[in-house]
Amino acid sequence: MRVTATNPVAPRYLRVSDAERQHVVGLLQKAIGLGLIDLDEFTTRTDSALTARTRGDLNSLLVDLPGLSLRAGAEEPESMTLSSHGSSLVREGHWRVPTALRVENQGGVVRLDFTQAEFAGETVLITVAMRHSHLVLTVPEGIAVQDEVTSKHSVVRLRDLAPASAFGRRIVLRGELVHSSLRAGRPGRRWSLLGRR
Predict the structure, then answer these.
(1) Residue 39: its pLDDT value, please?
(2) In this protein, which residues make up the domain named DUF1707 (predicted)?
């Protein structure tokens, strides 16, 4: 469809931001609390919300839920970019984890320890862009990890991590690994660059 000043894009075709996706996940959490949907429906709709591309995609998840709708102009989520080149980057101890975190590294090591971290929201979207690098995550109990990373000539190992569930915090991993490794596990499990220590 050609877009002109007299033929604008219909609202249902507008692309959505991560903030709008998170807003809909919050509405779905309210819906399950009100008994409008069950656990299976919540899980299915949440997965669809996190991968939605347009406003129409999101609205279709809410259309049968009275009193719940996608509000325009959802606030942008807290965000942070961690970037390094040929060096190590570490976040540990008490630090605030935003709802949107981008990790960029080339030829180095990134270690993110969430054990004592303060989370800004129930869902944290971590977008990775790693080249010839290593990413190591320490994830405490009660936080699930959802792996949606595209890997090329890379290794991804998630150890002892429960799959993403309908309740509680979750970390969603997206982005791309090229000639890199991503390893995640619970506290007390130490990793070398080639495996478990």
Answers:
(1) 86
(2) 14-66
